[in-house]
Structures are given as C-alpha cells and as structure tokens.
Amino acid sequence: MMRSQQLTILGSTGSIGCSTLDVVSRYDNISIFALSANRNFKLLLEQCLRYEPKYAVLADSEQHESFKNLLVDSECKTEFLDVENALEIIAAHDQVDLVMAAIVGAAGLASGLAAVSAGKRLLLANKESLVMSGKLLIDAAIRHKAEIIPIDSEHNAIFQCLAETRTQFSAAEERFVEKLVLTASGGPFLNTPNRQLMKVTPKQACAHPKWSMGQKISVDSATLMNKGLELIEASFLFDLPGSAIDILIHPQSIVHSMVYYRDGSVLAQLANQDMRVPIAYGLAFPNRMPSGAEVLDLTTQPPLEFSVPDVARFPCVSLGRAALEEGGTAPAVLNAANEIAVAAFLANRIGFQQIPAIIDAVLSKTPCRPAASLDIIKDADRAARIAANKLI
Ligand code: NAD
Ligand code: MG
C-alpha cells in the first residue's frame, strides 16, 4: 500500500485551515502531521482530537498554559511543540510531504520559507508572504526543488489553465502567453457611491457577498487591495510583468481567472465559490480528488458579467500596481502598511477610505531598496509598520 502523505497545516483554525481539514477528511491517503493556531486553542484541541496529529503549535504564548492543561485533561495524544521556531520545525520536518500555508499576513513568511527550503510542496494561501518576499521565496523553491502550488483561487485557476505551457517552475511561458486576467468579485461595496464609502463599518466590510473568509482578507476584498496583492502575487508566481496582468470585475465569481494565449485562445477555470476546490487541487496534484464542493450548474446561474475596476473609488488597485512596478522592497512596504491600516479599521480607529490614504503616504515616504535579502525585507516591513502607525 502507498504510504499516506503527511500534511502540516500552518493556520489550521482559520477559514482556509478548516476548509483544508474538511477536504482531507474525504481522502484516505493524507494524514495530518501537525496543526497550528495563533490563539484559538479550543478549536485547535478539537482538531487534535479528531485528526490526531503528531504535533500542535500555538503561536501566542499567553495561551500556552491553558492549552497544555486542556491537552492533558483530554488525554489527547498530540504533542504540544512548545519551542522557539516551532512553526518552522513543523513546516520543514523530515516526515512532512505537504505544507498548507494558511496563516494570515507577514506572520506566515518564516514558516513558508522553511517549507520550501526543505523541499516540501507548499500549498500557498498566505499571499502576503509571497508579496513581501517575492523572488526570494520563488528562488528558494527553485534551489531546493520545492513545488509551490497557489491556493488563492485566481492563481490556482491560472496554474490550471497554464497546464502544459507551464515550464519547469510554475512560470508562464511568455512565448505563448499574451496576458493573464485576474477576476475580482468587487467586494461588498462594488456599487456603493464614493460619499457613502466614508461611513462604512467593519461589519459591512466583512460581509462579503460571495466568499466567507477571515476578517483581514474580507477587508482587503472590500478595498480591492486583495486584487492589488494578487497582482503582485501573480507576477512573482508566473514570472510576468504587471503590464501582462489585467484585472476584471466579475461579481458572480464563477470564472476564477483566465489565460490569454497568443493564438487568440482564452482558457478559464470555472467553479462554484468554494475554496475546497483549489485546496483539493493542490493536495492531489497532478491527480484530482473530490473536494466536497457543489457541482456548478450553469443553467441556474445569473448571467456572467465582466467590467473594468473603478480605480478612482478603489485606489488600492493602482497602489498595488505602482508597488509592483517600483519593485524591490515596495511590495513589502505596501503589504505592511496595509496590514496596519486594516487592523486599525477593524478596531474602529480609522475610516474605510483612510486605508488607501495611509498606504499611499507610507509608500511615498519610505525609500525603496532592492529586496536582496530577507533582512532587508524585514527592515522595510518594520519601517512601514512604524510609519503607518504614526499616521494613525
Ligand atoms: P483566518 O483569519 O481565518 O485564519 C488565519 C489563521 O492564521 C488562523 O489559524 C490563525 O490562528 C493563524 N494566525 C493568525 N495570526 C498568526 C500569527 N501571528 N502566528 C501564527 N498563526 C497566526 O484567515 P483566512 O481567511 O483563512 O486566510 C488565510 C490566508 O489565506 C491569508 O493570507 C489570506 O489572504 C489567504 N486566502 C484566504 C482565502 C479565503 O477564502 N479565506 C482565499 C484566498 C487566500
Ligand atoms: Mg483570491
């Protein structure tokens, strides 16, 4: 019998983490090696009891005592890995084959990098880590013969559409590809007039019309910074310049993205809005496995619409493009300023439209350098967080 694949989930208590466990439970050949959370130790314990991983990691040390006590009381066999660099250890462990990077934000960078440096297959949901580290993460993957399979639905769609024109590492073959088109739902404020955007609340911003996701990415979807980040993500993943990547608003979220080929052919991937589809693809690649997603019925769908984004109302799209064009540490600065601004918006400390204003100000204030090393990137990240906090 084939040995079952060992999977580590970084961020197992989040939206992507829970969907990943749901997909795994439909499949015999994947075992959970390790799970991790930030603070939610109760859910982490439930997951440990059900999936019996070898290790569990809890990032926030304030919760360690409570988690330890619960583990003992429950007679759970999982070992709590309470050491520094625990996330890197479970990502790079010898026994691990697959790593799901589902931590939100820059906090996922070190563990994702550890996974590719150990030659694992990285299922990359944590787009912020790639936006920050760009070519460094890709180059580490190439050097250590690690695969990166994008889980972000748009990039997963493009990965699927590139199929045989994809070369060694998931780069698009420029000779064949005219351009990529990332689709965007447009978020909850797609048709909200500018003057009302001033007053929108975190609750309204997190009520996404099509997807149920973590809070941070929900706000990113509402500002369209999610598309700004995804533009940068696509450029690094598929080795294409920003000028070869378009964005289209597609409110039905059925077409997840497209590849335009030189000969006039356009390939698209379609599916219902369910992250279990790209997750199952990443787990089974190059095979296919059931994901639990409902079958797409095009006859009951409303018509599929496409339009160009309104960058005047949603300046985050242009900010993402500008950071990509500037290159170097600019994407890391953009990402850090965005993380701080989104957290401030969620805490009711700033208004919705101050998010792009803060990012713009931080980007123009922070000098950009070549992103030659992880230390340089971390410095840029730190400086941008300080600058953004000052503005708030
Ligand atoms: P979430 O907020 O629901 O979950 C985040 C997970 O990361 C949780 O398990 C949390 O415990 C953990 N975490 C948070 N901060 C941490 C820290 N400092 N150290 C260690 N662990 C920490 O987020 P999500 O919606 O599941 O998104 C996860 C990632 O996937 C994000 O990068 C997001 O952009 C990306 N993504 C999500 C979706 C989606 O549909 N949810 C779609 C595409 C991409
Ligand atoms: Mg996406």
Walk me through this protein's architecture.
The chain has 392 residues and is α/β, with parallel strands linked by helices. The chain has a domain of 146 residues: Rossmann fold (3-Layer(aba) Sandwich). The chain is built from 17 helices and eleven strands. The chain has a seven-stranded parallel β-sheet, sandwiched between helices. Strands 9-8-10-11 form a four-stranded mixed β-sheet, covered by helices on one side. Strand 1, helix 1 and strand 2 form a beta-alpha-beta unit. Helix 15 runs antiparallel to helix 16. The longest helix is centred in the C-terminal third of the chain and has 18 residues. The model has no long low-confidence stretch (mean pLDDT 95). Bound molecules: nicotinamide-adenine-dinucleotide and magnesium ion (MG). The site of nicotinamide-adenine-dinucleotide has 25 residues, from helix 1 and helix 6.
Give a quick set of tags describing it.
seven-stranded parallel sheet, alpha/beta, binds magnesium ion, four-stranded mixed sheet, 392 residues, Rossmann fold, 17 helices, binds nicotinamide-adenine-dinucleotide
Can you lay out the helices and strands and say which pair or pack?
Layout: E1 5-10, H1 15-24, E2 30-37, H2 41-51, E3 55-58, H3 64-74, E4 79-80, H4 86-92, E5 98-101, H5 109-117, E6 121-124, H6 127-133, H7 135-143, E7 147-150, H8 153-162, E8 177-184, H9 194-197, H10 202-206, H11 215-223, H12 225-238, E9 245-249, E10 255-261, E11 266-270, H13 276-284, H14 316-326, H15 330-346, H16 354-365, H17 374-391
Parallel strand pairs: 1-2, 1-5, 2-3, 3-4, 5-6, 6-7, 8-9
Antiparallel strand pairs: 8-10, 10-11
The site of magnesium ion has 4 residues, from helix 8.
